[in-house]
Amino acid sequence: MAHQREISEEQAFLDRALVALDHMRAEARALRDSVAVASMRGAGDLVERDVVMGTALQRLDQLAIGDQPLFFGRIDYAPDGDGPGDAFHVGRLAVSDENLNPLVVDWRAPVAEPFYRATGVEPLRLARRRHVAIRAREVIGVEDEFFAGSDGDLALPDDELRAVTDEGLVDGGFALGGPAALLAALGRARTGRMGDIVATIQGEQDRVIRTPLPGILLVQGGPGTGKTAVALHRAAYLLYTHRATLERQGVLVVGPNPLFLNYIENVLPSLGESGVTLSTIAGLVPNVPVRGRDAEAVARLKGDPRMVTVIAQAVRTRERPLRRDVEIPLGRAVLVLRAADTVDVVERARRRPGNHNQRRSAVGREIAQRLAQRYYERFVRDEGEGVTGVVELADQIRATPAFKEALQRMWPRLSGQDLLHDLFGAPALIRAAGRGVLGDEECEMLVRPRSSSLDEIPWTIADTALVDEARVLLGPRRRPRPATKSPEAFLEGVDLDSYSGDVRAAALREAARLAAAVPEERDEAEFVTYGHIVVDEAQDLSVMQLRVLRRRDLAGSMTIVGDMGQSTATAAVSSWDTVLDALEPRRPVTRVDLTVSYRTPEEVLDAAAPTLAASGSDLEPPRPVRRAGTSPEIRRLADEVALATELSAVVGRELAAVAPGRVAVIAPEGRVPEICRRLVAAGLAAVDPTVEESAGLAADLVVVAAEGAHGLEFDAVVVVDPAAIAARGSASGEATPRGLRTLYVAMTRPTRRLTVLGVGALPDSLL
Questions:
Q1: Which letter does DSSP use for residue 530 in this model?
Q2: Domain that holds residue 333
Q3: Residue 169, domain member (yes or no)
């Protein structure tokens, strides 16, 4: 039959392409090994060796695709004239045979664009688009889409087979590329890791991915629209298209929490890009370990843009003249540093350009110079030649303990941690910093007990943005200094035993040479900047956190992704306009709305839509493309005893229904440990994926806090205690807009099945 013939055709091509890939790997290994043992005669040779070695290693890294399919599609152009049209296989990376004839084109190359964008209305000169399903090294399926030619004719084989999963497309006539391939991908069991979508990218997604680099691209997308996957594929596309620039400047991907970063960390490597930094906002602020948690009102205040002024005034309060005179012993005299003399010195220093720590030196030099001049005129001037001059005397004065102590009181050398620790531990300092900005109650909210050392401070996530703000005003505490590094550190993770003796010896020589060229160690107040920044779940960032991102933005190039309908953080911005105001774009902003939900089925979106509307959001839910075939189940239980019994039964049923897929129980954060214990006691292997020693999101059954479920997806979801989730941030237990948005997030995590179990009254939106 024709379908089997096409599978055989693609299998033969796959075998040929895999041989070519092995040949490319062998060439890269040979280049690496030959350079490693080459004799170097001068500095130029060493530089050349480094360049070639780096190129070979990078090439090997790009060619290591693991068990991912080498290609996933083919596009056939309509004949142009008498001859047949061109055909191209589209895959994860470009592959050529030993004669450099192209076999597979990279999915990011311009020639591959029609694979994602062609529709029946706009075929982009294609006659056929083929989706190829590959498992390991075997072609297991082929799906062809045929496009009408200029004459309107459509040549579709009589025995063409169209296989889809048990789930089906909704009515409505969306122009989808490869619906069977798309449904198969969406129906595949979740793995606990986010998968790439290169084989099923749709037209509206591809337009976002290929948007030009400069400026800010803002992407608003509801549940299931693939905005996270699109953002990551955009990072891979930009690195491919602007490699010379972005490999030097760097690409940063920012996620909402470590659990989310673990979920997405394999996507970019699977697309051939491994040189990308993944971080949370807190992770961008070094040496501020998050151990504490703010009350909601405190977190909201710390994220308020008024804190910019509070921090600036807090720095200014530490730049102050002495209150009383200070005696400074020097030789046979005791110098008096008069408090009145320090007033104009401090005022002049405040007007100087530069940061706080930078200007401290000017304060110290001026005061020491004044004292030295007095000492010189009284004791030294008339003693003749060869005596100590004013400059030498000033240096001696600055070295005395009494002078150092006085200078520290006037203009202390501070880190961001020092400033915040002192500020929050002293009500008087908070009142001074908040004067004219914060009310008395707000000042009291910021007070917390002082810790015995900086290492014991219970820093919170909101604190990290404030420390970052303070570091800008304070500046580095010291100049960059060499950081020693052992030769072994350069070989960490390298299996030397897998190489020949000559190569091992060359690697050790290279490591010793690199260790000798010691780099400069950055001060924590010196920020690393990036050529492009991708921010996911941006709707949950505060203005202060957005300012952290702005400081890391080197070129004004960012991709901002999120959904205001899923804004759930305490201090979150209220609109995309607020986000842009905080980022201060340097170039025009492009906004794109993703309106089609590929992941979340129609039944789940319909069940969740009333909750989104009840939250006060004016956003429309995305339009689904598929049905799951099962309706969500919303149940009201009488009490906690009934919940304990019913929960284990429901979870067991869902595990069986979606096996070998993943099930998540999503509950209020405070109930996660209790629910884990209940399920384990019932014989179900439930884990909290945030616990380091657990299997994480790869476990078959996880219990996730509703507050941290953004961006995750599971085959089946059981939402527990929806009323408590909806009442998030409420002292009375009534539903709040933020709580309802959190419930909306929880309800839209499944790709197949949804169950909601409530105790007592349910939120009105679920009735």
A1: B
A2: 296-474
A3: no
